User: Which sequence fits this backbone?
């Protein structure tokens, strides 16, 4: 009988809702293909320390709807060192693995790429609430995070309008203003402070005051952590004489939790299945991406050497529907 293919899977970097759906799809597809599949616990750190378990159907039962990652995750900057990656290579060799699926964001794709350059057949799956990975329209988790942010802002608006206040809401995004801009559009906020489009605070303060004079009961400014803190934006608005009483809310890590949306479950399931098919077909050194309506393989060389920017369409939408400073 032919030897069964053996693959590994891990989640790395910040967790994202839908990672479990991707793990489940990887495991179920691998088992359907008669592969053996091993899950490494705690990302690249777990790989280096040989912390793994062979996975079966029951290990991925009941996880589709759960946020977080059952394989746990970590930030492991030591993986940038070649000597540390060599340890990972030894583990993969001992286990006689034929391939590895790495589920994570931009930094994790760099780790995947580095391993792949050392000869390991690696396939990446983009997962990050930030949606900042080159080569895919969407990353797993961004849709759920956006739904969480928009619902939070809806609630903030209730209290803001009851008190005639303006709120500065800080959202995550690492180096990208995507979450802030898209959430601002979808929640009807007045402005987004993002690194991609500088804001003139004097003009913004004037606009908020005009709204207050016109009797608008609330105003919302969404700020990306990539541009400034909520506190900094609040101080700038104060310095520029905003009449509204101001409050700041930092949404923080609640943006990363929660049950994944339908959309995140579906893309995660596709990504997981396609990643196993890629390994089966000898197509390593790639990340599975979604471009328009297709699932595609993007070389990790390209993924890690290009920087994703906010799609022009969102900037145009913001320009038309939101007031901008
Ligand atoms: O990359 C996902 C992300 O949530 C970023 O938006 C944020 O900057 C970062 O992770 C926070 O990381 P940590 O949970 O390690 O503080």
Assistant:
């Amino acid at each position: 009988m032919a030897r069964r293919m053996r693959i590994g899977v891990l989640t790395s970097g910040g967790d994202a809702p839908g990672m479990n759906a991707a793990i489940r799809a990887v495991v179920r597809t691998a088992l359907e293909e008669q592969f053996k599949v091993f899950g490494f616990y705690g990302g690249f750190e777990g790989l280096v320390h040989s912390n793994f378990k062979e996975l079966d159907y029951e290990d991925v039962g009941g996880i589709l709807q759960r946020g977080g990652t059952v394989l746990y995750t970590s930030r492991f900057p030591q993986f940038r060192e070649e000597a540390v990656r060599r340890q990972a290579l030894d583990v993969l060799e001992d286990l006689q693995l034929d391939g590895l699926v790495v589920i994570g964001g931009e930094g994790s794709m760099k780790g995947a790429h580095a391993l792949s350059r050392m000869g390991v057949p690696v396939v990446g799956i983009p997962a990050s609430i930030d949606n900042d990975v080159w080569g895919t329209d969407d990353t797993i988790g961004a849709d759920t995070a956006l739904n969480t942010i928009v619902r939070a802002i809806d609630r903030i608006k209730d209290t803001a309008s009851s008190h005639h206040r303006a709120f500065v809401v800080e959202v995550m995004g690492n180096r990208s203003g995507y979450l802030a801009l898209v959430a601002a559009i979808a929640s009807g906020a007045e402005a987004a402070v993002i690194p991609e489009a500088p804001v003139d605070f004097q003009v913004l303060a004037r606009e908020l005051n005009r709204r207050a004079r016109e009797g608008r009961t609330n105003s919302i400014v969404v700020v990306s952590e990539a541009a400034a803190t909520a506190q900094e934006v609040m101080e700038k608005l104060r310095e520029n004489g905003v009449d509204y009483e101001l409050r700041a809310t930092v949404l923080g890590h609640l943006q990363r939790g929660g049950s994944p949306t339908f959309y995140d479950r579906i893309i995660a399931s596709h990504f997981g299945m396609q990643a196993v098919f890629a390994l089966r077909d000898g197509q390593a050194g790639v990340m599975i991406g979604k471009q328009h309506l297709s699932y595609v393989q993007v070389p990790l060389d390209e993924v890690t050497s290009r920087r994703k920017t906010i799609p022009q369409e969102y900037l145009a939408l913001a320009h038309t529907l939101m007031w901008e400073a």
Remarks:
- The chain has eleven helices and eleven strands.
- The chain has two domains: 6-141+260-305, 144-257.
- Residues 134 and 305 are 9 Å apart (CA to CA).
